[in-house]
Amino acid sequence: MSNATAVAPTDLYRESAAAHGLTGGLNAVGDVEAARFHEEGYLVVEDAFDPSEVAQALDGLTYLMDGGDGEFRGVQYEPSMRDAVADLPVEERRTFVRKVFSFVDHDPRLKAMSGHVPLHRALERIIGAPPVLFQDMALSKPPRMGSEKPWHQDCAYFEFHPDTAVVGVWIALDEATYENGCMHVIPRSHRDGPVVHFQRRDWQICDTDVAASSNAVVPLRPGGCLFFHGLVHHGTPPNRTDSPRRALQFHYRPEDIVTVTREERLAVFGDEGKDVTC
Length: 278
Ligand SMILES: O=C(O)CCC(=O)C(=O)O
Fold this sequence. Notes:
Blueprint: H1 31-40, E1 42-45, H2 51-65, E2 75-77, H3 90-94, E3 97-101, H4 108-114, H5 117-127, E4 132-141, E5 149-152, E6 167-172, E7 183-185, E8 197-199, E9 203-205, E10 216-218, E11 225-229, E12 234-236, E13 245-253, H6 262-269
Helix pairs in contact: 1-5, 2-4
Bound molecules: 2-oxoglutaric acid.
């Protein structure tokens, strides 16, 4: 099916059980917690980063969004504002940013977040090998405008064998709530393996194939983080509030991996996703 403007069904995200998170920072991720990650497909650490680290990350993002690095091209705006932003003053333009990507080599504050030592220690426990960063982005949902990211599996976007130990790390920079579009995951869905994705409201898992009734909501305070398996079904509803919802998202993998071709990837995840990037 190809209908990118289709309207989201209203019952796709339930304000149901909030995911239970660890406290004690990233050092609280030990073998038991890593085993829980593999069982459930995700792990929440409520207090992973302190307020000064969050503030530094926001400063780094603001610098790049405002054109502080003339070489940087990784800023994407909400689709409805793409033509209009050029005429806006920078502070206003910033409001309409949807995504900032491939930034770690353009700002030392953001590089520090991606290389954060306790984060890498926790990832090594989960992956079972030293983590290699392979994708960095910041995802913003502008007030009242930030749209839904429908249910999907991140491995659908990567040219790695689907068994690769891919771990996403989603770090809240603002408080993330049900109302402003926090993450939702379907616990244990990674165990069912790759699922065909459809070009509908986005490149997504067919709505009727998502066990939305069993979704876990992942509200986070700034500095909280979600580790999620590359095959776990996840998504975010729209931002229905007057405040922005900004987050960092890093993806890590082990050094040794088996790559696949684009055609092999699309043969597994569905060939309607030819033109999409995560
Ligand atoms: O932050 C969001 O709104 C969605 C992030 C996400 O699921 C993704 O980019 O894969």
